User: Fold this.
Amino acid sequence: MPQTGPAVLFTEAVIRKRVRELGRRISKDYAAVDELVLVGILRGCYIFLADLSRCLTIPRRIDFMAVSSYGQKTTPGALRLIMDTRTDITGKHILIVEDIVDTGRTMHFLQETLSARKPASLKSCVFLRKPDRLEKEVHIDYLGFDIPDLWVVGYGLDYADRYRALPYIGILETGDV
Ligand code: 5GP
Assistant:
């Protein structure tokens, strides 16, 4: 059989259903709030954020941040902000929207960075999490799915900038690289 692309982990239909459920829960939980600011973490979040934000029935604003690791030669594993929000988040209700939590280091860094700015509330919505890989205790308020320790692509997630537009979540195997 010829290689047809990464093996399917979650189909488009399964993803759509789960994102709608998350949207319903978030809309209910924030029903009494004037405005929710969704802070998407680039670049992997862009499709999830687009779908999730369109499932919400509450007033919301979209903003973005980007984080990068310092090279291994400096402080291994240290993170830095390479793009900050345009909104001043102090006093606002903030929901971090992230594609995947792997070791948890990025989410931990974001939660520390954003909570220092004194938002009215700070929660997180993560599409995928790899529980076996977690190194940092991070609290996730809304989670799409837990997955095994595999490299996944599609639905915004890449491998060397490929596969982001794949409509499903696939498992990258050696033959796909
Ligand atoms: P963490 O800081 O939790 O270890 O890693 C978070 C980042 O690693 C994610 O935002 C994502 O960019 C990347 N990452 C971790 N696992 C995967 C994966 O299976 N597939 C893809 N495409 N990116 C991943």
